[in-house]
Amino acid sequence: MRVALFITCFNDTFFPHVGIATTQLLERLGLSVDFPIAQTCCGQMHFNTGYQRESIPLVQHFVEVFRDSEVIVAPSASCVGMVRELYPRAAAISGDKALIEDVEQLIPRVYELSEFLVKRLGVTDVGAYYPHRVTYHPTCHSLRVLHVGDAPLQLLRAVKGIDLVELPNARECCGFGGTFAIKNADTSLAMLSDKMRCVLDTSAEVLCAADTSCLMHIGGGLHRQRAGVATVHLAEILARTESEVA
Amino acid sequence: MPSRSLPMFPQTAKKALTNSQLRRNLRKATTTIRDKRAAVVSELPDWEALRAAGSTIKAHVMRHLDDYLLQLEASVQRAGGQVHWARDASEANRIITKIVQDTGADRVVKVKSLTTDEIHLNQALTKAGIRAIETDLAELIIQLAGEPSSHILVPAIHKNRAEIRDLFRQTIAQGQDLTDDPKQLAAAARHYLREQFLSAQVAISGANFAIAETGTICVVESEGNGRMCITLPQTLITVMGIEKILPAFQDLAVFLQLLPRSSTGERMNPYTSLWTGVTPGDGPQAFHLVLLDNGRTRVLADEVGRQALHCIRCSACLNICPVYARVGGHAYSSVYPGPIGAILTPQLLGIERAKTLPYASSLCGACYEVCPVKINIPEVLLHLRGEVTRHASPLNPEALAMRELAYIFARQQRYERAQRLARRGQGIFVRQGVINHLPGMLSGWTAARDLSPVPKQSFRDWWRARQKEGQP
Fold first, then answer.
1. Global pTM value
2. Which positions in chain B touch A144 (Cβ < 8 Å)?
3. Residue A106 sits in which domain range?
4. Among A175, A179, A188, B68, which has the highest number of CB atoms less than 10 A from its own CB?
């Protein structure tokens, strides 16, 4: 199977190591990875901030770039959520019949990494080794837009050496919400402080999630407090193997 | 209602967030109700089917609202009631004031007051020399405190029992030896309210449901005070939004399962009162139904936004909302707080008067997940955000930045140039490998969060280098 990597602009620019880990993981599982290099941004920030018309050229660009891809996989629940949940609406707003059809064709081929591994490939043990105390934050869009369920936890539980501890009140939002963190900075912070308290209560050294955006938010707070908890994307944990560590 | 804009949500929220007592009260109350709701909902194997039925019935009613309203009017009249139509708040207040004045009463008892709060009825009655007494315990508490409601179902959720004890000792229980024991507090309120019930000539209620087929009004409540209101006085006035209609009696079978489990986390609420017009010699001998529009037909005209009218005021979305649970109801500056308020208030008032409310959400989707009639609140929030940006000046800094970014992101070459520029331009903000202070709009981020700088090599740089080396 040939997998087209949808890296997301956010990971491409700020967290390239998450893309590298995703590539290594997929190749280790015997898949051939392709990176359509013309890809840019899915338009989520525009759409969610109310600039829905402005997002339409980005939707068109995305559809063009991934037109011939067999399966499209992204290490981001929230950007996949944008494609799956909101592209049909962006297309409808555009009134462009061809775009509406293209989006319909595209959606069944787009996967978030954990759902691709568990639900499409049927793999839970990817042969990873990660000897750390880890807690997992299920991001809102992975839970309530993509409905990935416990796919990420199934993958983490199969990791050798991991000390996986449950995060209290895990399903509650961390307060990121894209431009929400800037427009409603105080409320966002109040949510963040409660999330950080829950993370610290687990005594984990690593906080893991399927979205770097939420990790950047929680990690930014933890780093400011010198809390000594690292934020690591799911792909990074799954990419690590025993031979590599040793 | 005044036609000025509501206060900005980020500012009202900021103020609320500093109130540590409020934060504690809200956390305790919302987590308790959340857990109770989750427990009773999980008992029902057909919960999702019930939600689907509720949503379908409501969508059907909205599509045929004109017919059902006329049917309801005819049914109520047939049963001996009178029906009044009110376009807006002032018309409704005029109608209600006139009905009360015609009875000669100078005092009314009230229950289920949300819709009357929306039209500021109590103030209108006071102006006409009529005293309105709230009889729902929580409504009474906030009325005595002179505060607005902060929750649809538990309007005094922001107050704890110690605060309520102090309030009662200053008002209805002066000179009494009162502790903060809930039993004692309830007894003090009961003593005060019984006198009111037994002497009131007129009652004013809201409505949970109105059955078009029969003209029956339904009110659900927990205390029994509502039942006293609707049975003891001679004249009963019910004020309801036009969207509260259900076609047939059997539809209650769906909604009386959805509502209590979603709102109080009970299998069934303690008091469910149903009445149809007037029964000679039993209960009120005059019944008036005031049907209120007040912006609702405008909401109905919006294809995406109209689902907000499906709301049955259970408040499950408030209790689950991480924003509401921290800022409380007053920050929303409306009788409809929380996620449902964030989509209902801007539509009822007009988007230009509540521009910050559609942004009062992190789009976490928890509200949609618990809504018993499946209102897709995140969808409506995004739709309303689109309305806000359409009405905003195209020259405001945010709009300019967004348009510029959309232009850059639409082409690979422009996007890659912007990546390089960001890497070079960030230099002045990076201190010891971290960004901890950003200017302008972005300062909200760095006020309490560090930011990692843009790394030297983007993913696509890595990919290109790898391709050059001839790897797969």
1. 0.96
2. 364-366, 368-369
3. 2-120
4. A188
